[in-house]
Amino acid sequence: MANFLEQLKTMTVVVADTGDFESMKRFKPRDSTTNPSLIAAAVALPQYEAVVKRGLAWAKKGGGSNAEMARRAVDRLSVEFGCEILKIIPGRVSTEVDARLSYDTEKSMAKARELIGLYEQEGIKRERVLIKLASTWEGIKAAEQLEKEGIHCNLTLLFGFHQAVACAEAKVTLISPFVGRILDWYLKSTGKASFAPPEDPGVVSVTKIYNYYKAYGYQTEVMGASFRNVGEITELAGCDLLTIAPKLLAELEGMQGTLQRKLDPAKSKPLASEKIHVDEATFAKLHLEDKMATDKLKEGIDGFAKAITDLEKQLEPRVAQA
């Protein structure tokens, strides 16, 4: 009998949440995603030295201060690693816009176009790249315009239903609701030690979004992300995509039995909540009322921003020596 990972791949697109090329070769995901933290970890590994040197040399050609060169190096390394990943996987790679731009629509769009331009210079078609943006109102509006330009977007740091509806109405390609981080907030706020997988607040949130999208015919894909345990993953079997860290992929690979499909577009309509419209004022109101989403979005942006700042500092001395 096929293991759980093999069964999951028959109903859900499995995405690797890693910058480790070797684990991608082992688990054979269709898509992959990167972020500054994953790149920082990869930069420290000797097997990626050639990739890093290429990125640093490119950044140095532009001149300027070490800090300016390091900023360019982060973008270039994101693309360098993205290109290497695309040699391994058949699908798409997600590449992140600087989280420090999360509340600036125009600058987010400019950075997205710049990243796509770097990929296209390397012969990578934009259809194989997803630009990651935070699910702020400004990020969603940036994605709405980028999608019209053929630049496909992955809206990340998504915690609230209002964010999901706004993304669907903006016709973004994909959203990444953060299952584990939602669970973290509820564990802390309730004092509970755990939730049963079907009652996990992150699982409940993604299930609600999935059923809503399918019932009302939205084309935006749902990719569950940020998992804490395999129970969350198996409860979302059938979701459009799931992005999973190598440790949990290995656990799924070692599990035997029958994996039951939990999410199914054919069964979504009776389970969907009432249809709503989310404009800017409604988004602001609902976001303010959702303390979990408010807390976790801010925390996530701050964390992503710190990761990119730390990576820039890590690269400053290296780019000077390139």
Task: Explain what you see.
The protein is α/β, with parallel strands linked by helices. The chain has one domain: Alpha-Beta Barrel (TIM Barrel), CATH 3.20.20. The chain is built from 14 helices and eight strands. The mean pLDDT is 95.
Largest sheet composition: 8 strands, parallel, barrel
Q: Strand share of the residues?
A: 5-15%
By CATH, the architecture is named Alpha-Beta Barrel
Q: How confident is the prediction overall: mean pLDDT?
A: 95
| Low-confidence sequence ranges | none
Just give the CATH class: Alpha Beta
The rounded Rg comes to 19 Å
SSE pattern, N- to C-terminal: HEHEHHHEHEHEHEHHEHEHHH
* Number of domain units: 1
Going across the biggest sheet, name each strand in turn: 1-2-3-4-5-6-7-8
- What is the name of the CATH topology? TIM Barrel
Find the CATH superfamily.
Answer: Aldolase class I
Helix content: 40-55%
* 3D shape: globular
Alpha-beta content class: alpha/beta
**Given the structure, what is the number of helices?**
14
Distance between the termini: 52 Å
How many strands?
A: 8
Give a brief rundown of this model.
By secondary structure, the protein is an alpha/beta fold.
SSE layout and pairing:
Elements: H1 4-9, E1 13-17, H2 21-27, E2 31-33, H3 36-43, H4 49-61, H5 66-88, E3 93-96, H6 105-121, E4 129-134, H7 137-148, E5 153-158, H8 161-169, E6 174-177, H9 179-190, H10 201-215, E7 221-224, H11 230-235, E8 241-244, H12 246-253, H13 280-289, H14 291-321
Helix pairs in contact: 3-14, 4-5, 4-14, 5-14, 6-7, 8-10, 9-10
